[in-house]
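Researcher: Structure prediction, please.
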Amino acid sequence: MSEASGNLVYACDQWEIDLSRRELRSRGIPVPLGGRAFEIVTVLVESATELVTKDHMMERVWPGAVVGEGTLHVHISAVRKALGPDRAMLKTVSGRGYRLLGSWTTQQREGSAPPVYSPLTRTSGAPPANNFPALINRLIGRAAAAQFVRDLVSAYRVVTLTGPGGIGKTSLAIKAVRYLLPDFEDGGWIVELASLSDPGLVPSTVASTLGLKLAGEISAESVARAVGGRHLVLVLDNCEHVIDAVANLAETFTRLCPRTTIVATSREVLRIDGESVYRVPPLDVPALGQAAPDYIMQYSAVELFVARTKALSAGFSPHAEDLGSIATICRHLDGIPLAIEFAAARAAVLSVQGVAAGLRDRFALLTAGRRTALPRHRTLRATLDWSHELLPETERRLLRRLAVFPGGFTIDAAAAVMKDTGFDASAVLDGIANLVAKSWVALDKSGAGARWTLPETIRAYALEKLVEHAEADVAAGRQAFYFRDLVTPQARGARSSLSDEDLARRVREIDNVRAALDWSFSSAGDPAIGVDLTAAYAPVWRHLSLMRECRERCERALLSLEPRVTANRSLRMELQMALASAIFVTMGPAEQTKTLLTEALETADALNDLNAQAGGLSTLLAVYSFRGEYGRAQIAAERIEQIAHRIDDPLLIRFAYQQMGAMLITRGRPREAQQYLERVLRFPAVPGGRHSAIYYDSNDHAAARAMLARALWMQGFAEQALNEAHLSLKELQGTDHQLQLCRILYHGICRIATMTGDVATADREIARLIEAATRLNALLWATAGHFLKGKLLVERGEFAQGLLILRDAFETCGRTGWRLSYPEFKGALALAFAGTGLLDEALGALDDAMAAAGEDGHGWYAPELLRIKGEVLLQQAADQSALAAEDCFNQAAQMAREQGALFWELRVALTIARLRVSQGRRHEARAPLASVYDRFTEGFATADLQAARTMLEGVPP
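Model: Predicted structure follows.
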């Protein structure tokens, strides 16, 4: 393959084979194709219509591996399917090999650099990461099926395993994909969807499993863009009840994630382009009338029955007379593995003949004469009915009550839903142990502590029984009550900090909390429980970046509160704060956010709840900052500082100092800001395991360093500023605080690198900010990144492109009501207008910016706005404009001196020196610039100081 720069593409008519991007395209649209199948296309197109033998093909695509022709045929079929109506282009030469027909030409495409892909096969190092559960028992009778599924997974981008419940789709998928893990550098992940009741939660569940921290509304597209070019395999398990959402997600991944393979298990196919469907067959069963022991024992269904019975009863050894009964059982169960395992569990206790007799009686009405014509899930239901009837009534009641836990349960949770039945904790534990032994309940080994789950099919069955016995609302109410008490703290203010253990426990119960909330706000529910639970769980949604869900849940809870009931005041306040935070992160309506927080703070003041006041003010401070209301933001910061000292909370004091420093920077007081920010850094690091639930930013060291960098840079200490900006990023290493990373990039290195003329660093870090914010679906930070990108383009003289990006960012702010660093970016917009000859528009933008700076106290950028206005006025080429420009420069210089902003002084002095040289007043140009330049002690490699030095050398004394 060519090593030339650009994208190497083979083209023929409507088809393109892009070797750099590993894409097969039809009329420019990528066609889904698995990794190995694309390797076959590569071998064929590089041979330029020549014959490629089967041996050569297998050696190239599967080097060093023993591969049968059946595997090759699967992949050839995948290529033909991808070629669609042009499948005849791939010609088979019988007994010899294959040839790709057509006149293929080679092209080198210019444009963005192609993604860098690592080799398909992993040859060394640690095994790829995965979360696949261990297959404790050998998967019997599935060797051929597993091999076929492996071939499909390496040939197609989307493979769906379909079949009736209990057929073994999940086990087969895990067995097949686990074998292929070395082919996926970024690992394999199984996403369990059975517990979801809302299809809209499919993207967030996938994101959570993959460890993606996405802010704002989480969609299939935002998750796919976050995954990007990672080489991984994703198993979406139990999709049938959310099939449309899964199909949309799979289709989106196929389009946006070129190296992700999806394996779905579902009773219904996805029906999307590029999907390969494998219908999982039942296990083989002996034909009726065949009684020879050797004949019966060769069937996989019988082998499974015997193996599972032996596992449960060590002394079990089937006799010849038993085998006939076992064959009968397997036939009646249609070879469905789950049903056979239930039967084996009973055979370990009862005789095989007894089980066979009971089974025949139970299934007679369902299968006699026309069994194969019935829906196959009815066979599994019959198996469950029969097995359920064998349980004692106490275990039946326990089983159906346990169905209210979609996310699994502990012994305490199980005891809570059985409280009205007379069961104590000991009886519940005994009952669970019995249900585990009978394969109704499974031990959850994914975390610490004793926890159990009901398999999806069994839980659905048990829920039906719960309704039949008119116990659904009772059980759901007790479940909701239990989780309300588990999650809701007893003491006011206890939500301000959560330990790692507290947070992990709450995260694990998310599906149970969702179920509890759904019931609480139903017609039969108790809204009071739902309100309490929503308020208490809001910090968890925030930690998981499920801000859309947080917003919807809080809105629903608020609707349930009577506005004039005094007892509801505290809950309403907490819900308003949580909702405001969610709206803020998702860049919802700014005025609604302010209204919510204003009302919440009025309640907090009336209740004299200092923790709540600090929490509300911290979010309100952020809202004011991103609304451009910096004067109000400083007042909020001062109030937080007062509260922090009153309650003597070091975390809150540190946060208050950091916010005060930030506000002082915006007001143009860098020396005072430096003092506050350095006080933050003198505080010890926050002890591990504390997670802020009310404060906007809990990593104050990183935020303080980013802000300190700006304070130092304004005072002329460019090298120290760059050092602090880099240290602010280092503070976040080893953590997964992606939203904080966005904030630190925005306030720190992105700004400092731009201002000091380090274009390469600025370009890289701004791109990093935009990429992270886009991946998180954090519109607020994505917009901030685009503002910085537009400003950088203007600084580089790319005015038209910068103008386009800045206008788009301002349009987003105008639509939502937010104003991100309004004067600064309006100044950049003015320069963009001036650079494209739109002087009137430039002056209009500057008037807006300076009005905002004067109104909101955004003083730090005012000297630069005056300097920019002077430069725009000079472009008007009128004597009066020149006088007005000099007046702007003089005002800017005076203001910069008052602020102690040496960097602004330098820019103004440099502009004045250039003006005087252009006016022929060279003798007046040097002294003012030299007086400013000589006050610098570092940063002489930065762009402005280098420009000043060049000017001084060109204008000798």
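Model: DSSP finds 43 helices and 17 strands in the chain.
Researcher: Thanks, that helps.
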